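Bumping my old thread because nobody answered last time. Still need a sequence for this structure:
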């Protein structure tokens, strides 16, 4: 059950990402053509204001279709109308006029040629496969030549539409962290949530549920308790705890040095922060984690940090473990994964969002669109890097499992 929840959580993060693109595109007038929860085949779909909404049979995220991501080229016509031309050779002339218009960047002429081709297609008897492909071609090319095409939009609109995807994941991280800091993750209390095995606390007899009220006879708050343990320098301590309504002295117990400080092996329950403080703390922690992720990516470039990479299998396993440890732990992990998805998508590689951002800025600076071949070659490099990272992560995950 925990594994299923982990998978659905990862699917939710992908859906949030795609929803960011969808609403970001709508906000700047680049009306998406489709928005699906899940992947096809569609269980149900409907049209509203020119947008096809649907629920797919594969519940692993979602997708959004933004019109005209690239400037159309003659190959697009060849790809979509090839079957129709084979079955009805008389369509060669109208198809050729479409291709010439696309080659000359004749947008008005391309629209007129598409209208002529559509009329010619209606007069021909075609197989369902050929007609379906041709109709998709007409729709795609009209979108690519229309006023709402992504590649024709001002640079700022393109940036909003693309950045909204990673932005949605980062925003979700901030919301999850703020909620957790408001409820259980703000500051440590005096109540012990769990005791680590083979720790000084376990040896001394501390139990989950104990509330520590004094150290060596001196009353302490939740924050002061941590300071006393960390500052003990390994000297033995006697704790006074409230257990079953009475006070019990536990110890002496000697903190052990680990992770650069002294610990006794307890995890304490958290106290929530006020909403404003929790929100600021969420921003602060997100910034710290973002810095660490960026540094880890930098180490990969220099050939280090390979062991830090994980594949979706490893992410799902960690999420599944967090589910078993409780809702709060799972939400922490979900927030971290959401942040990782947002940041990884900002890498300047096609087909990732960061690659589209880089090309939008480059084309805005040049004042003209780059050739499709440049996009395709850059995408080959980007896909190769993404696949390499996937296999590194998969190898690491297999090693951890074994």
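Sorry it took so long. Here it is:
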């Amino acid at each position: 059950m925990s594994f299923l929840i982990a998978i659905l959580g990862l699917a939710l993060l992908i859906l949030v990402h795609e929803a960011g693109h969808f609403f970001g595109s709508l906000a700047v007038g680049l009306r998406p053509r489709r928005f699906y929860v899940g992947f096809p085949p569609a269980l149900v779909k409907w049209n509203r204001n020119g947008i096809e909404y649907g629920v797919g049979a594969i519940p692993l995220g979602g997708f959004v279709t933004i019109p005209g991501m690239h400037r159309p080229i003659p190959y697009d016509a060849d790809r979509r109308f090839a079957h129709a031309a084979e079955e009805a050779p008389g369509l060669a002339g109208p198809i050729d006029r479409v291709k010439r218009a696309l080659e000359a960047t004749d947008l008005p002429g391309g629209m007129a040629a598409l209208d002529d081709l559509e009329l010619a297609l209606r007069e021909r008897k075609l197989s369902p496969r050929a007609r379906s492909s041709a109709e998709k071609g007409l729709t795609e090319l009209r979108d690519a030549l229309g006023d709402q095409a992504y590649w024709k939009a001002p640079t700022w609109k393109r940036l909003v539409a693309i950045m909204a995807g990673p932005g949605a994941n980062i925003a979700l991280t901030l919301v999850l962290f703020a909620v957790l800091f408001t409820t259980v993750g703000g500051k440590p209390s005096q109540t012990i949530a769990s005791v680590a095995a083979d720790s000084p606390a376990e040896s001394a007899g501390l139990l989950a549920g104990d509330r520590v009220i004094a150290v060596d006879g001196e009353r302490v708050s939740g924050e002061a308790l941590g300071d006393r343990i960390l500052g003990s320098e390994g000297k033995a301590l006697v704790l006074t705890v409230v257990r079953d309504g009475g006070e019990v002295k536990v110890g002496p117990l000697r903190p052990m040095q680990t992770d650069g400080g002294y610990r006794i092996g307890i995890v304490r329950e958290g106290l929530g922060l006020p909403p404003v403080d929790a929100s600021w703390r969420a921003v602060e922690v997100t910034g710290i984690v973002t810095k660490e992720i960026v540094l880890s990516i930098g180490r990969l470039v220099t050939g280090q940090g390979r062991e830090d990479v994980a594949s979706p299998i490893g992410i799902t396993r960690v999420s599944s473990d967090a589910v078993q440890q409780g809702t709060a732990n799972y939400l922490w992990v979900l927030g971290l994964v959401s942040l990782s998805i947002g940041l990884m998508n900002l890498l300047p590689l096609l087909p990732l969002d960061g690659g589209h951002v880089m090309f939008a800025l480059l084309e805005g600076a040049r004042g003209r669109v780059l050739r499709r071949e440049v996009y395709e070659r850059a995408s080959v490099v980007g896909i190769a890097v993404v696949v390499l990272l996937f296999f590194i992560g998969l190898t690491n995950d297999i090693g951890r499992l074994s």
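The mean pLDDT is 85. Let me know if any region looks off to you.
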